[in-house]
Design a protein that fits this description.
- It is a single chain.
- This protein is an alpha/beta fold.
- The chain is 21% helix and 37% strand.
- The strands form two sheets. Strands 1, 4, 5, 7, 9, 11, 13, 15, 17 and 19 form a ten-stranded mixed sheet that branches. A ten-stranded mixed sheet has the order 3-2-6-8-10-12-14-16-18-20.
- It starts with 21 loop residues before the first helix and ends with a helix.
Length: 457
């Protein structure tokens, strides 16, 4: 049933528009001058959101995640557009420059989109890339200039609104995003980069990334999220859709370094066709609260998904990672390795599922979660799961939670290394195998600095 399109509603014309309401959905779409099909999609998502219950501790995915302190009505969705800046220098984050992820030199990227406070502040793409038929732009521009490409995949193949309560809220209120479409047979070596910078408090921002790599094409995409820590809370929601057609290749890196005032929800889903290859990295460093849902759906034969993750929590941070390796077709391979460290009173939850459909024979799937606990008050929960519906597969998993061994510290101290430096070396060595698999020196350097700052002492 098609949504009923109402008369124009002016943003912030009533107090109700400062909250999550149907009228606020309409006001947002009208403020962005969106086509009718986008508004219909938003309103359908809002109906889905209202029909779904809030996640409860009785739900397996949320059993160890406490949402009682999250009050959605405390936050107001951003309904006004961000003004574009005249140069990238105006957008440099005020975060600690010692480990701040920078925008990078123009000759080291294929294109860049910078989002600020729920809008687009800067966008640029290499003419050489555009000449090959690649579309890389902000999502609003893509909807107006390439509607057929966006409509075919947006919130349909990977993360539909029916996926969950918070995904439906995102589909109704998404404000800004990045769209990448790589045509068949085109290979782009330098990374496409998207940054989200947020200065809001007591508001909600929703950022969407839609990446479609067509048959026999290849691309590299970097998502980054960053803000200073502020006194008042902020709500952020990100959805990432990665769609790989047959024989496509994609490397995807996401770095999240939100301020400690942020309630962060992120859903990432990849859909892999036959002979496709995904190599992804998830880095979680910031926010007060993070709930990440990360999945690879291997729908085509002989698909490969490499899923890496790094997280480091300190203070009273809470990180919850759920991963899915979904094998629908035979001869596919998935390899997952998530490593985390915790100190002070931080807590992490990891739950991973390898699911093999009936008939997905010769599946090869591996799942590993390692946790390093650096204080007595920190806690890490890890729950690996297997659900096997075929009889000719190789599926294995492993999980560990351990403290830094005194013997290792003593070994380094006996060679004149101070205890604090020894602990830094051990933590860096713990993460090093994953960091070395990142092909961008800038991101490697950022992680090294961020990990050193987290270890402290």
């Amino acid at each position: 049933m098609e949504a009923t399109i109402p008369k124009t509603i002016k943003p912030n014309s009533t107090t109700d528009l400062a909250k999550f309401t149907r009228d606020a959905v309409i006001a947002l779409s009208q403020a962005k001058a969106e086509p009718e099909w986008v508004l219909e999609q938003r309103l359908a998502a809002w109906e889905t959101f209202e029909s779904l219950p809030m996640p409860a501790r009785s739900d397996e995915e949320w059993r160890r995640t406490d949402l009682r302190r999250l009050k959605l009505d405390r936050f107001a969705p951003v309904l006004t557009a961000t003004e574009r800046v005249s140069s990238l220098e105006q957008l440099t984050s005020g975060a600690d420059a010692s480990h701040s992820l920078q925008f990078g030199a123009s000759d080291q990227r294929s294109g860049i989109v910078v989002h600020k406070d729920g809008g687009v502040a800067w966008a640029d793409v290499s003419p050489e890339v555009t000449a090959q038929g690649v579309v890389f732009t902000d999502l609003d521009t893509a909807i107006h200039e390439h509607p057929d490409l966006v409509r075919a995949s947006f919130a349909t193949e990977a993360v539909p609104a029916s996926f969950g309560k918070f995904e439906a809220l995102h589909a109704a209120f998404w404000q800004t995003g990045t769209f990448l479409h790589v045509p068949r047979g085109v290979s782009v070596e330098l990374p496409f980069r998207a940054f989200a910078v947020d200065t809001n408090v007591e508001q909600a921002t929703f950022t969407h990334s839609l990446i479609v790599v067509e048959e026999s094409a290849e691309a590299f995409f970097v998502d980054a999220f960053q803000s200073e820590t502020r006194d008042e809370a902020t709500f952020t929601s990100a959805v990432v859709e990665l769609i790989l057609r047959d024989n496509a290749k994609l490397r995807y890196v996401q770095v999240q370094d939100w301020g400690r005032h942020v309630w962060n929800f992120m859903t990432e889903r990849s859909v892999l066709g036959r002979d496709s290859e995904l190599k992804s990295l998830q880095v979680t460093l910031g926010s007060k609260f993070t709930k990440n849902s990360i999945g690879a759906h291997l729908r085509g034969e002989n698909a490969l998904a490499e899923m890496l993750g790094i997280f480091f929590a300190d203070g009273d941070q809470f990180f919850d990672h759920h991963t899915w390796q979904l094998h629908e077709s035979p001869y596919a391979t998935s390899d997952l390795e998530f490593k985390g460290a915790l100190k002070e009173r931080a807590r992490s939850v990891y739950s991973g599922l390898i699911k093999v459909w009936e008939g997905a024979q010769r599946t090869d799937a591996y799942q590993q979660n390692r946790n390093l606990v650096l204080s007595r008050e920190a806690r890490a929960d890890t729950i690996p799961n297997l659900e096997i519906g075929a009889n000719d597969v190789r599926c294995t998993h492993g999980a560990t939670v351990s403290q830094v061994e005194e013997e290792h510290l003593f070994y380094l101290e006996s060679r004149g290394i101070p205890r604090s430096e020894a602990q830094k070396l051990i933590v860096e060595g713990f993460f090093r195998p994953v960091i070395d698999r990142i092909p961008v020196e800038e991101i490697q350097g950022f992680l090294e600095g961020a990990i050193a700052a987290k270890v402290g002492y």
